Amino acid sequence: MTVYLLRRILQSFMVLVAMSIIVFVGVYAVGDPVEILISPDADQLERERAIRALGLDLPLWEQYLVFVQRALQGDLGRSFVFNEPALQIILQRMPATLELAFGSMFLSILIGLPLGLYAGLKPDSVASKTIMAGSILGFSLPTFWVGLMLIMVFAVQLGWLPSTGRGETATLFGLQWSFLTANGLAHILMPAFNLALFKISLVIRLTRAGVRETMLMDYVKFARAKGLSQNRVIFVHVFKNILIPVVTVVGLELGSTIAFSVVTESVFAWPGMGKLIIDSINVLDRPVIVAYLMIIVLMFIVINLVVDILYSVLDPRVRLEAKA
Amino acid sequence: MSDVTASGAPVAEPKVETPFRRFVSEFFASKTATLGLVVFTIIALLAILAPWIAPQNPYDLAQLDIMDGRLEPGAVGGSGITHWLGTDDQGRDMLSGIIYGLRISLLVGAGSALIACLVGASLGLLAAYAGGRTDSVIMRVVDLQLSFPTILAALMILAFLGKGILNVVIALVIVEWAYYARTVRGSALVERNKEYIEAARCLALPTRRILFGHLFPNCLPPLIVVGTMQVARAIALEATLSFLGLGVPITEPSLGLLIANGFEYMLSGKYWISFYPGIALLVTIVSINLVGDHLRDVLNPRLKK
């Protein structure tokens, strides 16, 4: 186990190094930062001094080492636009994105579980077939388009929900949260639902498959034979067993939820990291782009590592395979 | 096959069941899949024949009249054209814009899927055939690629390369090839150990010929299914990237960019600028998915009753 763990951590570290090289070369070698950083009025001497001050006269690998050294100290450069440390700007936006991501995970369970349960218990009814057809749409429709349609119907036509921003926020643990105020809750509902669409379909399918499998098990038959009510059998005995895989899979989706929030945040003007990166790409704010990519890459590597370790703890076959 | 003459040659009967004919009849047995194919064919024809079908050329500035801007669907513009789907802020006929936008969307979607398929299938075949170190290096990269969400990888690549149709295609190929590689490797690993490959090796055929002449054709069925689905995914992803302003340039708008252009007017109730391109995108994606979903059932022998 320890060997497996060490090997897996080493692998993750190598991936991190490889990704940081890709990001560094991609951002710093493709474009010319001198054009942006140094004013066009500067004369040749000033230009050279600035290039030397920024370390741009060094060979690329030395520049990379400087970049890594600073990154390890938490310095990923200053934003050209905000003139603040890039890392700080991103961390400021992170709670909004996390709030949206967790809100959408909560919604996906809240909506997907009952629908999947129904579709699993009555697989041949018209309603179940509609639910399953709907889940195919949830997988295949582009998120941004569904978001636009939600805005068109609920914000423009009906006027029930606000279409942009976070609304009023309340402070908890020194951070601002929308879900603590009624106004903020109205603001988060549509974006969270939009981001949840894919996961709702996923939960419906998982729950349905789980229910259909579990209903045939001996222990369910036994519970019935004992004379327990249908409700008790379903909500206590069956439910417990399907909940574990469903919650696991939804948890595993956290990373991609945060990645896809880029789209939802842009549609609903939600002030999180996703909207920040799109804005930064459009104005070529390189330090913010690099910082965002590095943070998100790190996040993914950690998530993948944790998932793999959890799997190997839960499923001994994975460990054995790695050993062989 | 019972009608075999004494000379051994089969009698040319009009209704001999070949695998292809069986595939065709099984495919058309599903009404939804047939509908999907018909709808997609119409969409593809619209896109190909755009210059002859569209009421106006939306990118010929001489044909546009800014006074026709943001007309409602069904209104008659200054040039006498009835704008069935309204006009955008530049006075472009939306129907024409959509037909031309379909061209770009389909071109990028199908083009990137095809290139990704070539790259991915070749690497997948190589991994399965060569095995050992080559296999593990290729598959490690595939795993790494698949562990990052497509949107993120595409975003990253376009942040480096900038806008442009070619750049979008490159980004889509880079994020998609891994799916093809994994699919082909999976089926090639099974096929590799079959007797016909052994026979081909014994005949000392060149590796290239074994790979592409013998192994590849037998890995095609799952590849076709994945390919169909990936075209739909590529179209959706391109639309998303263009909507975010990172995809195609404003001079060559795809459906996603048309939707983005209409977004600001949606809040003031002028829904049609975004709504109709969205419907076109939706119909395209759903029709491809219907076809792909049924192809999976038809081409997978395990699902056969």
Question: Could you characterize what this model shows?
Answer:
The complex is a heterodimer of chains A (324) and B (305). By secondary structure, chain A is mostly helical. Chain A has a single domain, classed as MetI-like fold (Orthogonal Bundle), CATH 1.10.3720. Chain A is built from 14 helices and two strands. Chain A has a two-stranded antiparallel ribbon. The longest helix of chain A has 36 residues, at 86-121. Chain A is globular and about 90 Å long. The relative contact order of chain A is 0.14. In chain B, 68% of the residues lie in helices and 1% in strands. In chain B, strands 1-2 form a two-stranded antiparallel sheet. Chain B has helices at 19-27, 31-48, 50-53, 94-130, 132-147, 150-161, 165-192, 195-202, 207-218, 220-243, 255-266, 272-299; strands at residues 75-76, 82-83. Chain B is built from twelve helices and two strands; from the N terminus they run αααββααααααααα. Chain B is mostly helical. The radius of gyration of chain B is 24 Å and the shape is elongated.
Structural class of chain B comes to mainly alpha
Provide mean pLDDT of chain A, rounded: 80
Outline the low-pLDDT stretches of chain B.
Answer: 1-8
CATH topology assignment of chain B: MetI-like fold
CATH architecture of chain A: Orthogonal Bundle
Sheet with the most strands: spatial strand order of chain A: 1-2
Q: N-to-C SSE series of chain A?
A: HHHHHHHEEHHHHHHH
The number of domains of chain A: 1
Number of helices of chain A: 14
Q: What's the structural domain tally of chain B?
A: 1
Helix content of chain A: over 70%
Largest interchain contact: A-B, 36 and 37 residues
Per CATH, the architecture of chain B is Orthogonal Bundle
Multimeric state: heterodimer
- CATH homologous superfamily classification of chain A: MetI-like
Our Rg estimate of chain B from Cα atoms comes to: 24 Å
How far do the termini of chain B sit from each other?
22 Å
Q: Work out the helix count of chain B.
A: 12
Question: Based on helices, strands and strand pairing, what is the structural class of chain A?
Answer: mainly alpha
Shape of chain B: elongated
